[in-house]
Amino acid sequence: MHKKIPLKIGSCFLALLFSMTSQAAIGDSPLVDAFVEQMVTKHHFDRLQVQTWLQAADIKPAILKSISAPAEGISWYKYRKIFMTEKRIEGGLRFWQQNAATLDAVSAQTGVPAAIIVAIIGVETQYGGNVGSYRVIDALSTLGFAYPKRSAFFLSELEHFLLLCREEQIDPLKPLGSYAGAMGFPQFMPSSYRNFAVDFEQDKHRDIWTNPRDAIASVANYFVKHQWRSGEGVFVPVIATDDQYKVAIRKELEPDLMQADLQRLGINTTAVLKADDKVKLLSFEQEQSEELWLGLYNYYVITRYNHSPLYALAVFQLSEAIADRKAGNSVLSDKAAQPL
Q: pLDDT of 133-167, one tens digit each?
């Protein structure tokens, strides 16, 4: 068992935390005091109760290391290999078969394709097989009190977490999640849970940890609330006639090009696009070259879930692979498979 070390939180301790092998307890600091005061005055929590929860939380150096090296920082061809595997495609097919009635009902009601819902859960947690091993309160406390770069965001999520625990009658010291505090099958952050989680079972609990039906409905609701366009596509591949397209490759995620812009840039595609719809031109690094894709509006909706074009294309391609497998087509040979 690790020894708990009282710690006054501040940016000057980050170097120490990265080198520590033992976890640290949260000590007194103005930031901690301000958070407690906010929960008491704004949300009417009991002061001693909030202090007790925070005293039971641990600052974990492993979390600080993990957030410094997210998977989205790697190249597309390496990122793709994480998700386009036989294990994840077959897992998606099984998850679809096991939850077919729920997926059919939710998809019919919301217009979000079952394949997209399944792929999101597959990318996030391998269909509930890996929902995270950190206590959510540890993750959010570590990043809120000991990661100044994004302290405001994670303290807001800690606030939402304590609120959802009160609303759902959950012990804040019990839920597990990712190193960033994301929870359950769909890896919702606490604010997303409070805004988008759905009680599909109508049992007065939005259980995204153990109930795949609530998780499926919650993912679909997330996309509906972010204006998913039913019946429309996500990505289309394109080819460039020369290098003019490079001026249109920008870091911003929102679609910004019209069909006339594509013609001017020498972008060709066999897909039929709506003349008045904006699209996003995206370049994805391969080992020896690059792939060009147009992200349609639904691509942008997927990036509301995770602000990464890599993530959006991985979800799309996995959804296509799972749907093909369900239809009886094989999209990866055993030789090509790279099991996790």
A: 999 999 999 999 999 999 999 999 999 999 999 99
126 CB neighbour count, 10 Å cutoff: 18
pLDDT for res 308? 96
- Kindly state the tokens that stand for 331: 């999209």
**Please, which residues have CB within 8 angstroms of residue 79's CB and are 6 or more apart in sequence?**
71, 72, 310, 314
Residues with active-site annotation:
124
pTM of the full structure: 0.88
Alpha-carbon distance 234 to 297, whole Å? 7
Q: How far apart are CA 198 and CA 304, in angstroms?
A: 18
Check whether 215 has a pLDDT greater than 80. Answer: yes
- Per-residue pLDDT of 101-139, as tens digits, reads 999 999 999 999 999 999 999 999 999 999 999 999 999
The residue type of 106 is V
H/E run at residue 7:
strand 5-7
Question: What is the CB neighbour count within 10 angstroms for residue 336?
Answer: 10
C-alpha–C-alpha distance, residues 55 and 138, integer Å? 10
Question: Which of these CATH numbers, 1.10.8.350, 3.40.50.2300, 3.40.50.360, 3.40.50.150, describes 5-59+132-179?
Answer: 1.10.8.350
Dihedral of the alpha carbons of 66, 71, 75, 80, in degrees to the nearest 10? 150
Tokens found for residue 81: 């290999």
Structure tokens at 267: 């972008």
Q: Is the predicted pLDDT of residue 338 greater than 70, yes or no?
A: no
E strand or H helix at 225: helix 212-225
| 55-60-61 Cα angle (round to 5) | 145
Q: How far is the CA of 285 from the CAs of 165, 255, 282, in angstroms?
A: 42, 20, 10
| φ, ψ (nearest 5 deg) of residue 255 | -55, 135
Burial 13-51 (b: 16+ CB within 10 A, else e): bbeebeebeebbbbeebebbeebbeebbeeeebeeeebb
The phi and psi torsions of 292 (rounded to 5 degrees) equal: -110, 130
